Amino acid sequence: GASEHVSSFICKVLGGPDANSHLLTKICKNRNQSRSVTSTGNQMYVRLKTEASSAGTGCTANFSSVEQGK
Fold first, then answer.
1. CA 53 to CA 9: how far, in whole Å?
2. Long-range contact pairs involving 32-37 (C-beta distance under 8 Å, separation at least 24)
3. Is 2 helix (H, G, I), strand (E, B) or coil?
4. How far is Cα 22 from Cα 39, in angstroms, rounded to an integer?
């Protein structure tokens, strides 16, 4: 939608196996660049959308798993 054109990239993190899963967070360039995201399940789906007209340094993501009950 029109609200997605706030920057040159948008990263959506969803809690589940695919693009139809529930949205956990949306990260835009120059906003909320450093954040932890936790899913209650054992899967996350990450979608990065960029504008073809822009060039940049990209992004970095790190992940870890936690044993249930820890």
1. 11
2. 37/13
3. helix
4. 10
Amino acid code (one letter) for 48? L
The 3-state secondary structure of 10-69, one letter per residue: EEEEEECCCCCCEEEEEEECCCCCCCCCCCCCCCCEEEEEECCCCCCCCCCCCCCCCCCC
Alpha-carbon distance of 22 to 40, in angstroms, equals: 11
Tell me the pTM.
0.67
C-alpha 43/C-alpha 51 separation (Å) is 27
pLDDT of 3 reads: 45
- 17 falls in which pLDDT band (50, 70, 90)? very high
Mean pLDDT, the chain, rounded, equals 76
